[in-house]
Amino acid sequence: MPLHSPIVEVAVAIINRADGAFLLASRPEGKPYAGYWEFPGGKVKPGEPLLHALGRELLEELGITVVQAYRWITRTFSYPHATVRLCFFRVIKWHGEPRPMESQELSWQFWNNVEVEPVLPANAPVLRALGLPTQYAITNAGETGLKGALTQVERALQGGIRLLQVREKEMDRKALRDFTRKIVTLAHHHGAKVLVNGDGDTGGVQSCSNFCQETGADGIHLPSSELMNLATRPDTDWCGASCHNAEELFRAEQLNMDFAVLGPVLPTLSHPGSSTLGWRKFDTLIRNCSIPVFALGGLRPEDLSTTWEHGGHGIAMMRGIRA
C-alpha cells in the first residue's frame, strides 16, 4: 500500500435492540478479512453525507430503513490493505427486520459476552465502549449528608443507574474510605461500577489506585489537572477523565481513557454565573472524538436525547440523580 494512501471513510452502525443486544455481521467471501465479524456499514462515496451513506449501506446489506440514528465515536485504524476512518452511529430506530442481503451471517450479541469470532481488530475498543451506561451519577454527600447520599445512591441504583463516581473532596481519607466501601457494596449488588475521583484526599493517581484496591472500586476518574500531568494511563480497570476544552479531550484520547466528561454544558447551581459551553460548542468539541463523551453541567435524565443529538454518549449528573 502506498505510504500516503487516502483514508477510507466508513459509516458504521451500532444497531441496538431493546434488550441491549447489538448486531454483528460476518464479512462475505471475496472481501478482505472474509469470515471476520464486524458492525454493519460501508464506504462513504465522495461528497456523500455520512448519515446518507449509513442509510444506503444498511438498506443494501440488511434490507432495513434507518429511522433514527445518532453520531457516536470516530476511530481510525490501519489494516495492511487500507487505513479506515470508522464513523460510528447508534441506530435506535429502523423499519424492517435485518436479513443477510449479501450472503453474510448475522448475529445479535452483548458487549460482555460476544460469542462469535474472530472479530475485526478495529472493533475491540468499541465493544468495551458499549459497556458504558448512558447515565453517570456523581455523589454529593457534602450537600446531602452521608445518610442522604447513601439513600440517594440506592434510589438511583434501583432506578437503573449503573455507573457512579465517588467525588467527595471535603472528606478525610478514613471517612472517604468508609463511605466508598458502602457505595461499592450497594453498587456491586446492582451490577454497577464505581469510580473514585482522583482528587481531594485520595492523593493523586498512584494513591487513588491504592485507594481503589482498598475499597473495591472499579477504577479512577481523573480531574483535568491530573489528566494533563500524566505520561501513561493509570493501571486500573476503568478510567474516565474530566475535560473542559479540546486540548484536554485530545489528551484523554492519547492516554486511551475509557471515556471523558465534558462541561459545563448548561448553567449549574454549584457555579452560578460561570461560562458554559452550550450544546453547539459541545457538539463541535467532540466531533470525531475516538472515545465516548458524557455531557456534564445542569443536566437531568430528560436531556439524554439532546445529548445524543449532539454526539454525546450520555449525561453525567450530580443533583439530577435525585429525580
Topology (elements, then pairings):
Elements: E1 8-15, E2 22-26, E3 37-38, E4 41-43, H1 50-62, E5 65-78, E6 83-95, E7 106-109, H2 124-129, E8 135-138, H3 141-144, H4 146-158, E9 163-166, H5 173-189, E10 193-197, H6 204-215, E11 219-222, H7 224-229, E12 238-243, H8 246-254, E13 259-262, H9 278-286, E14 293-296, H10 304-309, E15 314-317
Parallel strand pairs: 1-6, 8-9, 8-15, 9-10, 10-11, 11-12, 12-13, 13-14, 14-15
Antiparallel strand pairs: 1-4, 2-3, 2-7, 5-6
Helix pairs in contact: 4-5
What does this structure look like?
This protein is α/β, with parallel strands linked by helices. It folds into 2 domains: 8-123, Nucleoside Triphosphate Pyrophosphohydrolase; 135-322, TIM Barrel. Helix content is 29%, strand content 26%. It has 10 helices and 15 strands. It has helices at 50-62, 124-129, 141-144, 146-158, 173-189, 204-215, 224-229, 246-254, 278-286, 304-309; strands spanning 8-15, 22-26, 37-38, 41-43, 65-78, 83-95, 106-109, 135-138, 163-166, 193-197, 219-222, 238-243, 259-262, 293-296, 314-317. It has an 8-stranded parallel β-barrel with strand order 8-9-10-11-12-13-14-15. Strands 4-1-6-5 form a 4-stranded mixed sheet, covered by helices on one side. A 3-stranded antiparallel sheet has the order 3-2-7, with no helix packed on it. Strand 9, helix 5 and strand 10 form a beta-alpha-beta unit. The longest helix has 17 residues, at 173-189. The chain is elongated. The model has no long low-confidence stretch (mean pLDDT 92). It catalyses: 8-oxo-GTP + H2O = 8-oxo-GMP + diphosphate + H(+); 8-oxo-dGTP + H2O = 8-oxo-dGMP + diphosphate + H(+). It comes from Nitrosovibrio tenuis. Its EC number is 3.6.1.55.
